[in-house]
UniProtKB/TrEMBL annotation:
Substrate binds at residue 117. It comes from Chlamydomonas reinhardtii (Chlamydomonas smithii). This is Probable acetate kinase. Its EC number is 2.7.2.1. Belongs to the acetokinase family. ATP binds at residues 37, 234-238, 308-310, 357-361. CDD domains: ASKHA_NBD_AcK_PK. Keywords: ATP-binding, Kinase, Magnesium, Metal-binding, Nucleotide-binding, Transferase. Residues 1-23 are annotated as: Disordered. GO terms for molecular function: acetate kinase activity; ATP binding; magnesium ion binding. Coiled coil: none annotated.
Amino acid sequence: MLAGKVPVGSAVPPRNTAPSGKGSKVLVVNAGSSSIKFKIFTAETLLPGAAGLFDRIGDPANCVLKASVPDDGGKPKKFEKKIPAKDHLTAMQDIMSFIDENVSSTFASEVCAVGHRIVHGLDMSQPKLLTPDVIRCIQDASMFAPLHNPPHLQGIYASQKVFGPDVPQVAVFDTAFHQTMPPESYVYGLPYDMYEKHKIRRYGFHGTSHKYLVDQAAAMLGKKVSETNVITCHLGNGSSVAAVRGGQCVDTSMGMTPLEGLLMGTRCGDIDPAVVLHIQNQLGLSASETDTLLNKKSGLLGLTGSNDLRTVIEGAGKGEPRSQLGLDMFVRRVRKYIGAYMAMLDGQVDAVVFSAGIGENSALVRGLICDRMQALGIAVDKDANAAAVGGKQADISGPGARIRALVIPTDEELSIAQQTLQVVRGAALAA
């Protein structure tokens, strides 16, 4: 049995798949190793409600619940309270108690569905109702996401325990959007049985975000999603780029794990695989130590001493050579992928989309990425770019640009809520 597995028999299968007549809320859950993020949406309108983070689960002395609850005027009221929680089940029960006291005393009966963010779903191509088979898939994928999937399972079991079998629960996979990639994009140049027998292939990540960006870009462009060709750039502490033709992903920068691709906050991104062997041989590092080096001590942090690009930009402005190198490498890698994906899309690109912490808020980085790409049809309006910060959706394209440059704030929780409702309503219609 894989580490972190919970016996499939302990799952609570949904007794019915249709939202009850009284159910009017969707709860989105993202369970980490020592945390649970949650957000409530109204099912009919998808308007957001209370949201929060239960952090440091398992550390009773420091365990804290931070939450935001809109008041009658829509303004958020902040809460922060230390609550000792020994495990995910206790934390989920405490979250429900908080909601009962500060949002609605009948919340449990108002929930029509729960949507869970799942980092790795192997070859699952759609969100799925949580059944024993889906639970087994999440368990099997733990070999590729050992830090993420086991805690997701703990969140699932806690949620099932709290809500019981009458509330349908849905798994929304970060990998699902990328399952439309053709084999030439996802198969590695290894012996074929590595893929066939061991499932070693490109999976891609941030799929929930990329899907949301494609849908929003299509709306901004006034096109059907099925007619939209875009390059989506999710740029944050973890970063990835996706090539999308006709609304479907045809390639993405992350691989079997989130380590591949762009230079990131603490991840190295693309390197010669022989570097790993060399490091292990020369430094005597174990597989675990090498994994930590590549995933947690590399990227901008390893190059500059900071994983925060804002700090790196500040250092570059002061003339610090390594900060400038880190900034240049980050920008160069994104430009490289955009150029490659333009070729993959035969030059038929409607827009390049920027999102996530860096993509939404750094006009400097967006400008540097798009600089000198006029020959490819990309140009940025300086004033529009400078104004597009702080969560604003904007078209920052310059005059005469053939390819639009768009800034779209991502909303993964909303996307999970949307997909959860689609699954539950689809199951209800099929029943």
